[in-house]
Amino acid sequence: MAKYPDLKSYLQSNYIELFTSEIQKFVDNNYDGGGFHSINVLSLLKHKIENVEVKALKCHDAPGPIVKMDVGLSADIVELGLGTKKYEADRKCRWFTVYLQGILRDGLVDVKVLKVKEYHNGAFEKDNALDQFLVPYIYTATLEETADDFTEFYCADAIYDAYMLPIDHILQQLEIRFYMADLPDNCFGRMYFRKSKATVYEKYPMIGEVKREDYEIEPGTILISRQKYYLGSNGTHRLTIAHEIIHWHLHKKYYQLLALLDDQSDMMSCEVEPSHYEESMTMAQKAHWYAEWQANALALRIAMPQHLMVRAMEEAYDASEPYHYKGELVEDMLKRVAMLFDVPRFAAKQRARQLGWDVADGAFVYVDGKWHQPFYFPEGILEQYQTFVIDKNGFDKIYSSNADFAELIDSGKYLYIGYVVCINDPKYLKARFIGNRVELELSDYACEHADECCLVFSFKSTSYLREMQDKYEFYGESYLSKEVKSENYVEHYYDKNFNQDCLQNADELKKEIAAILKAQEKEDNVFLEMQQNHLTTFGATLEYHRKRKKHITLEQLAERSGLSVTTIKNYRSGKSVPPIENVMAVCIGLNLPKAYSLHLLKTCSYSLGDSPRDRAYRLCLDYDEGTLEQWNMILAACSQPMIPDNRNQ
Hints:
Blueprint: H1 7-14, H2 16-30, E1 46-60, E2 66-80, E3 88-104, E4 108-118, H3 129-132, H4 143-155, H5 167-174, E5 177-181, E6 187-192, E7 196-204, E8 208-217, E9 221-225, H6 237-261, E10 267-271, H7 283-303, H8 306-319, H9 326-341, H10 345-354, E11 365-367, E12 370-372, E13 386-387, H11 392-401, H12 403-410, E14 414-416, E15 421-423, E16 429-434, E17 437-442, H13 444-448, H14 450-453, E18 457-461, H15 469-472, H16 475-481, E19 483-484, E20 490-494, H17 500-532, H18 538-548, H19 554-561, H20 565-573, H21 580-590, H22 594-603, H23 612-621, H24 628-637
């Protein structure tokens, strides 16, 4: 039984004579004992090549079954001494690149060397699992383009049922087929690359499902689990088949190589739960991880191509039911999109987020085994790897590891309510009574303005190294688009700077509430005292406020209000009734809070209505700590006359 850990080992075991012969020819034609030359240079000494070792391997994509490889090798150049008796005169270790081509079909055949060169660029590049196992290079940034190319090539002339992926058409194009089968619990599909036997189930019209044992399996056959799905319990057979189709489309050479390296291997299994990427993995394990990531990341994209997704979203919006909250509209749209594509609603949510529709984050919120109300926020708030939603385990981890976050929670400004961390205020939170307990949830206002009151968390999947996120994101998106729970492979991170606006909202709201409560308490006390002292006239009320404000003198009030001392005395004594402009001037002169000012106006039978002047006056009253000059600036901006009215002063 032949079994090799990777392609490099296979080449070392099977093609070392070819490499030695080709390097010998290159040395004989180009080596002068000191170095290599571009023209033929003869050396007086004979050379022998020994200890050839494969050090590096880089593969290049080529059409069909052709494989092109740049093989990095080290070799000893042994110089043989002159004379009849051969002896070793010198030995140098040199590095070479042998450019190899072969056909990967039922083994590696028709292998030939295209060129040999000396390698003198320092150390060989570190081994790469993609090159070692002929897995194509695909990154997150190219996924949409790769999926679009697939759709254009295989589905251009397909007949669609709604927007459902035309599986039968694609299988016919690829010349492969699938069967249902009973597979292990953690396996949702298998792709066979060598003849084998298996128990499968076939469906026939009028008969139904027929079980076939020891059925002959041809290369290119897909077995789909009857119980498990791609995306776990939230998948469908259509999505699962899409995953396996991607494998055959992208990884035929990878499968051929697996057959080459292990003559007992006949298929590759796809796990329901992806493995964690670790640097300690073997090259074969890393290659399997990359191949699975590519199939996982592209399956959603070919099942819901972006141009069809946009069209489906528009149709879903036009057909949506009347809604009370915008979050309900988003959920209704995603449900309709899921039906059009025959995918789970969680898959539609994930696809929407992949295409930049971040408001999907507030739809189908299912955390730690419990559904929560949908919420909404303006589009464009969340970046690619951000979310409002966090499970209890994620919350606890951040609380224990991030001092800023812990301080924020301990301050009481924010509360974790089971799925989001929200400002602790009745404006944003409401209580729901369930039997003898109460649960906090987002208020109606907060459900429409989550960005104003909820903290944003960054996330990454623990299925790969942190530095791999930009290149290989998928699993974090997947888990945050379905059930969020502690056993999922997602970690959350809190960024104080990103949440600065929300923190300011909490601080400002806290200060505002405290100020309002304090002011209300003062107002209540003052009005109570005024009622007790029967202060109902303008003059008496003015004098009361003047003394309450630490005995502002008449001269000071005159300077602040723009009125003369005589005029103020006349108003105080009741000899004349001030016009509304001058009551306003007294209000700013005394810097009366808004409620006091409205009361003072009322003592002269004035009230503010909805006229342009009265709206401008209301705006002025909101700036009770300002000056007469500032109020007049506001009035000028509103095209209203300035105060006071100095006629008859």
